[in-house]
Amino acid sequence: MVRKILEIIVILTLSNILVFSASAQQEDPVRQLMLKQFDRPESKLTIAAVVIDSHYAIASWIQDGRGGRALLRNKHGAWSIILCSGESLRQSERLIQIGMGHELANRLAQSLVKAEASLTAHDRHLLDTFEGDVLLDGGDHPTVNPQHNAQPYKH
Fold it and tell me: Which of 39, 87, 29 is nearest to 63 (CA)?
């Protein structure tokens, strides 16, 4: 009986390690893109959380005492940043406005809330300091969306 319980514990532990490892492998390209795009020697970027569902990801970031969130899309195996924003990316309604289906938007928003729950209250506050939306064309060409009181983040 004890041996069976130990076997089950080992199997569950290994399963959790494999799931964590797979998740980390999925997140790594998102993290690398964010760092490549925004990290600077004089202004280090911290990726606070990454959630991925289907071909979308949201990365929460902190830099220079401010923070925000980036919405990314995977097209043909390559991630690109399509929108930088703040608190609005935690809301499924905003994700639906962007063009996501209801179920995907709900899952992604819920996953983000869960992922950010382990952050400190201060870090969660910083993530909401990004005001408005900065739309990106999948590259590094920002455009301000005038409907959302956008304030482009300056490096």
Answer: 39
Q: What is the DSSP pairing of strand 134-136 with strand 78-85?
A: antiparallel
What type of residue sits at position 149?
Answer: N
Which three-class secondary structure state does DSSP give residue 98? helix
The dihedral region occupied by 42, where left means phi > 0, alpha psi between -120 and 50, and beta the remainder, is: alpha
For the segment 61-78, the average pLDDT, to the nearest whole number, is: 95
Structure tokens at 120: 């400190």
Helix (H, G, I), strand (E, B) or coil at 66: strand
Cβ atoms within 10 Å of 144's Cβ, excluding its own = 14
Asked if 118 and 76 count as a contact pair (C-beta separation under 8 A), the reply is: no
User: Contact at 8 Å (CB) between 131 and 121?
Assistant: no
The dihedral over CA atoms of 138, 144, 145, 151, expressed in degrees to the nearest 10, equals: 120
Q: Which residues of 2-12 are buried (b: 16+ CB within 10 A; e: fewer)?
A: eeeeeeeeeee
pTM above 0.90, yes or no: no
* Main-chain dihedrals φ then ψ at residue 55, nearest 5 degrees: -105, 25
pLDDT digits 0-9 by tens, 119-130:
999 999 999 999
Structure tokens at 21: 């490892």
